[in-house]
Design brief:
binds 6-O-phosphono-alpha-D-glucopyranose; alpha/beta; 25 strands; 8-stranded antiparallel sheet
Amino acid sequence: MCGIVGYVGNKENSVRVLIDGLKKLEYRGYDSAGIAFISNGKLNIQKEKGELVNLQNRVNLDKKLDIGIGHTRWATHGKSNALNAHPHRVGKFTIVHNGIIENYNELKEELKKEGYDFNSETDTEVLCSLIDKLYKEDNNILNVINKLKNEIKGTYAVGIMCDDYPDQLYAVKNKSPLIIGVGDNENYIASDVPAILDKTRKYIVLEDGDYAKLTNSEIKLYHDGKNKDYKVELSQLDASSVDKQGYPHYMLKEIHEQPEVFKKTVNPYLSEGIETLILKMPDFTKYSKIRIVACGSATHAGLVGKQMIEKFANVEVQVDTASEFRYSKNFLKEDELVIVISQSGETIDTLEALLKAKKEGVDTLGIINAKDSAIARESKMVLYTEAGKEIAVATTKAYSAQVALLCLIALNLSYSKNLITKDGIKDILKDVRNLPSYMEELLQNTEEYKNIAKSIKDYNDIFFIGRGVDYALAMEGSLKLKEISYTHSEAYAAGELKHGTISLIDEGTPVIGIVTDETIASKTISNIKEVKSRGANVIYVTSRKDEKDNDFYDKKVIIPKVNDLLQPLLTVIPLQMISYELAKLKGCSIDKPKNLAKSVTVE
Ligand code: G6P
């Protein structure tokens, strides 16, 4: 987590360059921020607790700097205060760091013996002291940086300034992401391309173990003590995707982008009908079982995928949380396929789970949003979701793009195995065409979502129930609610509630009951009646339009009925919107919920 930027060049008001860059990286963490820069030979360091705006209000944005680094933090070691905020400075070095130095305690003890004192609780100050110590032993910065890999265990992307070379910026990367932005008589480092997108589209991706020296006119890349050639890429990212474009929050903008994202993700696979789907996707028929591994909402997308692949293609699917998969006996068989799902492509648990599966010799497929990310590079096969840049920490459009691709995998397998009729395919393709307008329709019902939010606002516990695919959606709805509205919520398999949790249902307790799967609708409705008769305030989210029985719910949200394969892509929209409206009503920080970060690069 954490975002880092660095700049070397001659721009006027270049303090603004650092702050602008950090603004685009706040999704990586936002509990404190800091910058360090050299201007007219003088070093300045400014750090503030809290979101970047606190720092922005304290610095002179118009000041010209020659070289500078900046950081926005998601605390791992020590509280979020100005002392622990980056940059850290020891001896001649000032650094910003993203990642975790796992052996920092051992290093700290050794460095203490050498006379180093520590002011902060961070692993980064230890790293900075180590760099200073190594530099005292060998007066060559590049040698020092190269030696770090032998001394440090853990993950790191680091921006380094040294007093002896006030016109040079150094950078090193291992497992945490880092790119170099290539400008005209100026150069940058950053955790991610959007940080520099309004300055340059040209960038270089650093690989693990790479380190670099940047001046305003030159970029030198090294690996293991040797010069390394590099390729300059041109970002195709749309700069407008990192703007709110009139929406009050990125999350709302991203929820509204879902119809477009669905088209962009799905259409390339269906351009010439179902045959394109077979041509453009790997042959899944050779696998006896599919294992899906991911974190957070990506796991929930995987759970929807499991329902679809099992139902439509009759292939067993097992879903595991990556942080558990990493350390479990997984009993992988060589004819199984491991699918990892990740928006960022850099979630460390998902990446390590992928590497473990590769080591065990099975085929791997990544469903990834961020092109050229570590997980995309490591996966044997990749299918990209076309969600564009997602800024709000709580995922919406990337989640539904993941679900869309999983539905396509189910369709591909179902067709390849001759399990679907021509008419079945026709129906699905028709619904694919209509889905974006159904999504738009659902997005119009703002007043309905606001009213529901009002009716549940004063309750501390909210339950989501459903069966089968609706249970998988309940989990995502509940997570969204917790993440952004700070309301405790649980998702339950509807039939399981009576085995304990129903004791929590009192007069007025909000229960969101989801019913879209016709085959088990009557069972879920019975469970909803059980909570209703115990006083629950039932919000019934359903695709069942003409229902005679109407005494088991307080509010009903109707979703257009489409083929079961595509239904989840509609069901999730009211759930996202209810969470959004509730968080808004409660005055929460919607795009940057407390304690969270979008890109989780620590385990
Ligand atoms: C974080 C985000 C979640 C996301 C999860 C996995 O916790 O806040 O929204 O689902 O990481 O992220 P990934 O980038 O791997 O999809």
